Amino acid sequence: MKKRITVWAVALVWCLSATAAASAQKAEATVSTQQSVPAAQTINWRDSLKQSPEWYASDEAVRIADNVLLYQHDEGGWSKNIDMARVLTERERAELVKLKSETGSNIDNGATYTQLNYLARVYTARKQERHRDAFLCGFDYLLKAQYDNGGWPQYYPLRKGYYSHVTFNDGAMVNVLRLLRDVVRKRSAYRFVDEDRRLRAEKAVAKGVELILKTQVVIAGKRTIWGAQHDEVTLAPAPARKFEPVSLSAGESVGVVRFLMGIENPDARIVEAVESAIAWFRMSGVSGLRWVERRDASKPGGYAREAVDDPKAPPIWARFYEIGTNRPVFAGRDGIVRYSVKEIDEERRNGYGWYVEEPAELLEKDYPAWRKKWRP
């Protein structure tokens, strides 16, 4: 524990000095960059990784990257649910500088790994040192945040509650592993990362894979899929918010399986994990039901969602399944588990994705391609 704290302290000092230097460089570049942008932003942050390779060399890409630096916490990571592409006023930038010492870094809803993906692309295109330094600081943050068992919590520094669980929810841990694996494989955007960090990332990915294998839920001697989050000590599936009970999670497990499929020359354990999960998906699809979503401003969250009987509908999968019975389960904010989405309160029924379709593509496209490549 003492060693972990010491490493954290040293890395934090490096991040503080790096981000301070980056802020100074950024201040010099901000005036000309900010004055050249239009009154309205050209892209939304959610589209920041969907641009052409040439776009990341543009002044607009640099402007957004400098925004990303302002939002970076001194500890190295970023907060979630912020449109970092928005054009900022001088007052807003000054306020963000004051907030950098606050904690709140996490990997939920795309936080931190998205910013790192973005900074890597802009640095590779423009070679601005402040973007490289911010990337390396955030990269070190991700490595520090990993548990010794190979998992990642949702928040680091740790917060009490479900935030400390190993988090597969919304692709959190899997997307961190994808980023690290891209660094290990020297993908074009990450060739600037030094060899020491690359080797550390390789070890972190190996530990993450081991954690994935250990957390695949075994029922009656058969491997199934994964929970949305797992206890950081026992590794058992764990609950999160009241409407997210202990369960098998079809939605999150698709991403886990795809990550495993991306492992080159998979060994027998990886193959077994993939094949077992595929078998579970095949037997767990729900037939004769269509999950309908439509915009409705009169409903909480602006959407109306309902399950409609339709004998011609293709199979869909519930987001959560009861461990043991494999029945789809649903819960409202009262935390009471029910077996029909129609029985939970309207706010939660309309405000959450209770059914998913992604397993269909996994079964029909991804799995056959993986099997052809690795199991001829």
Summed up:
The protein is mainly alpha-helical and 376 residues long. The protein has eleven helices and twelve strands. It has two domains: 2-215, Glycosyltransferase, CATH 1.50.10.20; 216-376, Glycosyltransferase (Alpha/alpha barrel).
Textual characterization of the structure:
The chain is mainly alpha-helical and 376 residues long. The protein has 2 domains: 2-215, Glycosyltransferase (Alpha/alpha barrel), CATH 1.50.10; 216-376, Glycosyltransferase, CATH 1.50.10. The protein contains 11 helices and 12 strands. The protein has helices at 2-36, 59-71, 90-99, 113-126, 129-145, 172-184, 195-215, 250-261, 268-284, 346-350, 358-374; strands spanning 166-167, 218-219, 222-223, 229-230, 248-249, 289-295, 303-309, 317-318, 320-321, 330-331, 337-338, 355-356. A two-stranded antiparallel sheet has the order 1-4. Strands 2-3 form a two-stranded antiparallel ribbon. A hairpin with a 7-residue loop joins strand 6 and strand 7. Helix 1 runs antiparallel to helix 2 and helix 6 runs antiparallel to helix 7. The chain is globular, with a radius of gyration of 22 Å. The protein starts with a helix and ends with a helix. The model is unreliable at 26-39 (pLDDT under 50).
